[in-house]
């Protein structure tokens, strides 16, 4: 079993949804989770929280899967690369849905060759604009939507959670 670390950034959640987020994350991690919720100034009436976690490779995907699709939630999950496993980044907004990217040891997004080739073919056929598709492949629409929420969270506390493996 390969162990890795990551961070869950809940950028915005309604107060009613906060305990459900904790429950879903606890289910993905296999340990009790109690997040420190603070007001999210970028969206009055909502709350934000951060959680550093440690677990087996693939835990980031389990967290993202447990939270995706919730209407009043914005979040990101990162998972560091580990021995034999690339890292991952997930981002979710209600308007855009889920974004997933593979990340390398320096945090760079790694785009598979076939996805780049497909973008070039579609652009040559006039189906898409290549620049727009490349921006989508690196998650720019999600970054653009989440940036005000990230900025609003500067200085917020982070709780470290390490799963005993």
Topology:
Elements: E1 3-14, H1 18-29, E2 38-39, E3 46-56, H2 59-67, E4 73-79, E5 87-93, E6 97-103, E7 109-110, H3 113-124, H4 130-137, H5 140-152, E8 159-160
Care to describe what's here?
The longest helix has 13 residues, at 140-152. Helix content is 33%, strand content 30%. Strands 1, 2, 3, 4, 5, 6, 7 and 8 form an 8-stranded mixed sheet that branches. Helix 1 (18-29) runs antiparallel to helix 2 and helix 3 (113-124) packs antiparallel against helix 4. Strand 4 (73-79) and strand 5 form a beta hairpin. With 165 residues, it is of the alpha+beta class. It is built from 5 helices and 8 strands. The chain has helices at residues 18-29, 59-67, 113-124, 130-137, 140-152; strands at 3-14, 38-39, 46-56, 73-79, 87-93, 97-103, 109-110, 159-160. The chain is globular and about 50 Å long. The protein has one domain. Pfam families: DUF3145. InterPro entries: DUF3145 (IPR021491). This is DUF3145 family protein.
Summarize the structure.
With 165 residues, the chain is of the alpha+beta class.
The secondary structure category is alpha+beta
The helix-strand sequence is EHEEHEEEEHHHE
What's the domain count?
A: 1
Number of helices, where a helix is a run of at least 4 consecutive DSSP H or I residues: 5
Task: Give the overall silhouette.
Answer: globular
Which spans of ≥5 residues are poorly predicted at pLDDT below 50?
158-165
Number of extended strands: 8
Amount of beta strand: 25-35%
Largest pleated sheet = 8 strands, mixed
How much helical structure, as a percent, in the residues? 25-40%
Distance between the termini: 9 Å
Organism: Phytoactinopolyspora mesophila
Protein name: DUF3145 family protein
